[in-house]
Design brief:
With about 170 residues, the chain is an all-alpha fold. The chain contains seven helices and no strands. It is globular. Pfam families: MARVEL.
């Protein structure tokens, strides 16, 4: 068995095949998605145990979305399915999650007096910060992508316009 691994052969399939690659876990996006998933799950558990159980749906949905994107990026589904604009979908998910977590955290801390609601509110504020960092980074990536796309197109149109002007002379 050790000879196969040292020879560079793929390890046998098993539970390790379900785990994301180490390079993705060490990347900034992987760590942010992992933090979002963990925080959303903790907040979900806190809301279940609290008097503010009506807020539990938002962390559950955010947990599932963050987990889906974590495994989608880890298994490189974003490269396989080109029809979805992944950075834009991720940006919208992060913006809405930050706003929702901020709103329900304020409500949980101010309206409810039990410890689980207070803990969910505090973790919610932490999640707001993590989602805000993620949407800031994703926004910068989107702006860079759009600047590259917009700088290419006008130049292409200018050369076509110049060519047509020279043809008409």
């Amino acid at each position: 068995m050790e000879d196969l691994e040292s020879a560079g052969a793929a390890p046998p399939p098993g539970l390790s095949s379900l785990l994301p690659p180490r390079e993705f876990l060490r990347s900034r996006k992987g760590q942010l998605l992992l933090a979002e998933s963990v925080l959303s799950f903790i907040i979900f558990i806190c809301y279940i145990a609290s008097l503010a159980a009506s807020f539990m749906m938002a962390p559950l949905l955010e947990f599932l979305l963050a987990l889906f994107l974590f495994f989608a990026y880890a298994s490189k589904l974003n490269e396989k399915f080109k029809g979805v604009h992944w950075p834009l979908a991720d940006f919208l998910r992060c913006v809405t999650a930050a706003i929702i977590y901020f709103a329900i955290s304020i409500a949980a801390v101010s309206k409810y007096s039990d410890g689980a609601s207070k803990a969910a509110g505090v973790f919610g504020f932490a999640a707001t910060i993590v989602f805000a960092i993620d949407f800031y980074i994703t926004f910068n990536d989107l702006v860079t992508f759009l600047k590259q796309g917009s700088s290419d197109s006008p130049e292409g149109h200018k050369t076509e316009d110049e060519d047509s002007d020279s043809d008409s002379d």
